[in-house]
Specification:
This protein is α+β, with helices and mostly antiparallel strands and 203 residues long. It contains ten helices and four strands. It has helices at 13-16, 21-29, 40-47, 57-74, 90-104, 111-123, 132-141, 148-151, 153-170, 193-202, and strands spanning 3-8, 32-37, 177-180, 185-188. The chain has a four-stranded mixed sheet with strand order 2-1-3-4, with helices on both faces.
Length: 203
């Protein structure tokens, strides 16, 4: 069975645009996925990237056009200037990490749905994912115990920092980023999911 390490940011519009495609690809090829939310701004700082707020206007103009194009192409509503962006990505990231740990211990819930709903909250629902009530709402909607928002704080904070270190060591420099660990094949961006699909199909 192939395995995918999925590095992403809960505040990234490109992560939002992954939608349910990664989960579908994993099911199609019988692959497992480890979800690794991280601080993408710190990742940029560590790997030679530029934070969006510091990018040249030319780059930001094209980014806006590309986001609009992909939003339309995927039929996924996206507000280019959401009410709560940027916001603190950590609380929602901690919840995702805690939910994944809970699944490993036998809990039930849909982790991919949780990730999708959190990113959709930012980019399509005008909600602040730094707020406890929003995080709890998304945990419950994905079938998890909303109490993970509290009980998962320690493991969330610890793993969140470790995900950043692992990302840098693995060659990650942006989000979303997918690594097939069996073959060390790396795919950067939601627009590379078709290549990920093809690669898994060739194994």
């Amino acid at each position: 069975m192939s395995h995918i390490d999925y590095y992403f940011s809960t505040i990234s519009p490109w992560t939002y645009l992954v939608g349910d495609r990664l989960a579908a690809i994993a099911v199609k090829h019988g692959a497992s996925v480890t979800y690794k939310p991280l601080d993408v701004m710190a990742l940029f700082d560590r790997t030679g990237g530029t934070r969006p707020a510091d990018r040249h206007p030319n780059r930001m103009a094209l980014r806006a056009q590309e986001l609009a194009r992909w939003s339309a192409h995927l039929d996924m509503p996206l507000n280019l200037k959401p009410a709560f962006s940027p916001t603190n990505p950590a609380p929602a990231s901690y919840a995702i990490i805690a939910a994944q740990a809970a699944l490993a211990k036998g809990a039930t819930g849909d982790l991919d749905l949780l990730v999708r709903s959190i990113t959709r909250a930012v980019w399509a629902e005008e909600k602040n994912i730094a707020e406890d009530a929003v995080v709890r709402e998304k945990l419950t909607a994905a079938g998890f115990d909303s109490g993970l928002a509290d009980s998962g704080l320690f493991i969330g904070a610890e793993t969140y920092g470790r995900n950043l270190e692992e990302a840098v060591e693995a060659g990650v420099f942006g989000a979303p980023f997918f690594i097939v660990t069996d073959t060390d094949q790396r795919f950067w961006g939601q627009d590379r999911l078709s290549f990920l699909d093809a690669h898994l199909g060739s194994l």
